[in-house]
Structures are given as structure tokens and as C-alpha cells.
Amino acid sequence: MTPDAPVPNGRPRPPFDAPGDYGGRPRPPFIVVPVTLAGREVRLEPLRLEHAGELFAAGAGEPELWRYLGRPAPASASELADYVQRALDEQAAGRHLPWLTRRAGDGRAIGTTRYAHLDPADRSVEIGWTFLVADARRTAANTEAKLLQLRHAFETLGALRVWLQTDERNERSRRAIERLGARAEGVRRRDRILHDGAVRSSAVYAFIDLEWPAARARLEALLRGVVS
């Protein structure tokens, strides 16, 4: 595909000049398909409907997990299956790419995450809709999962920008994002109505391609325990 070839939404793709980013090769096409991303700590598998039972058994019905996710906590595996089906519907529409997060050491399902707001024309994607069950928090799982997602976005898809957002009130999530090295871009005020009628404001963070080599080095250092 040439740099100015049309993209699925009809917008022309602008030319790019990314010297050194791809060893002199053209920037890869932004084509998002289900893919397994494997690391030492976690394995991200394309989410499937049958994963709902595994996730619920692992503790994915815990109310605290859903406090900021915009919907009530599922009371059963079948209710969680509804959440998974909605994620798969978004995937079928080309808007999201969801994964199951599986711990490599024991093979246990420990959460989900996804790409959202896929924008091939502007080469942008959100990482979000992430949760981990209680015994996977404060481990290397989130750091490595984000490294896998970011590396795939920048190095395989050729993304220019990868962004994250969280409820402004969610201090734990904000600290986790900031620890990864994402740059704060501001707060989108009163941008979402939650299931309980509360109005959320979203804190927005991002990584960009020009900063990715340094960001990748930081994430790898975090996994080695070098950066606190």
C-alpha cells in the first residue's frame, strides 16, 4: 500500500517520514487482527466467549474491579459473558481488540484488557478496559501486559500515538499509568455518564512514537526491577 492510499474510512493516509524508526523500511500498515502476545509473566490471548467462566471463577465479579468501568459488577458467569460478548461485538465492528490476560506461571486467567478507539487513518489506539483480579495486582502482570500492547502498537502496527484514560477519581489507576511513563495530557471534564448516574471526568495519558524507544527502555527496566 502506498503512503497516500485510501484507508477503510475513506480518508487519505498522509505520507510519513520516520528515519531510523524501522531501520529504513516503510512504516508498516495499521492492520489490526486478533493476535496472541506472549511475555515471561503474562500471555495476552484473543478474548473468547468461553473465557467468561474462567474469569468469573478467578474473581472477576469482585465489585471493586467494576467501580470505575461504567457498568455494575457481574453477579454470575453468564452476566460476565454478556460483557465479553459486547467486547466481541466491538471487535467485529472494527472498533476494539480485546484480550484475556493469562498468568504464564500457572496458566490462570487473571483479567482482560483491550485496544479501543482504533483509528487506522491517524494511527492512534487506546489501551483500556483493563482489570486484574486481586492476586494479580501489584505484580509484574500489568507492566508486562502494557509493554506487550505498546510494543505491538508501535513496532508492528506503526502507531503514532497510544493513549490511556481513567476516571479522574481512580488514584490507583492513575498512579499505575504514571509509573509506566505515560505523559499526562489533561482531563476531559464530565465526559461520561456511569451506570449509577454519576458523571465521570477522564484523566488522559499518552505515549507517542517519537518517545517510544525511551519508554520501552523504562518499561523493560521496570520489569528487571531497576526502576522504582
Summarize the structure.
The chain has 6 helices and 8 strands, in the order ββαααβββαβαββα. It has 228 residues and is α+β, with helices and mostly antiparallel strands. It starts with 36 loop residues before the first strand and ends with a helix.
Structure description:
The chain has 228 residues and is of the alpha+beta class. The chain contains 6 helices and 8 strands. It has helices spanning 51-58, 63-66, 77-92, 141-156, 171-180, 212-224, and strands spanning 37-38, 42-46, 97-103, 109-119, 124-132, 161-167, 183-193, 199-208. An 8-stranded mixed β-sheet has the order 1-2-3-4-5-6-8-7, sandwiched between helices. A hairpin with a 5-residue loop joins strand 3 and strand 4. It starts with 36 loop residues before the first strand and ends with a helix. Mean pLDDT is 88; it is low at 1-21.
Strand and helix layout:
Blueprint: E1 37-38, E2 42-46, H1 51-58, H2 63-66, H3 77-92, E3 97-103, E4 109-119, E5 124-132, H4 141-156, E6 161-167, H5 171-180, E7 183-193, E8 199-208, H6 212-224
Helix pairs in contact: 1-3, 4-6
Please trace the helix and strand order, writing H or E for each element: EEHHHEEEHEHEEH
Classification by helices and strands: alpha+beta
Gyration radius, to the nearest Å?
18 Å
Number of helices: 6
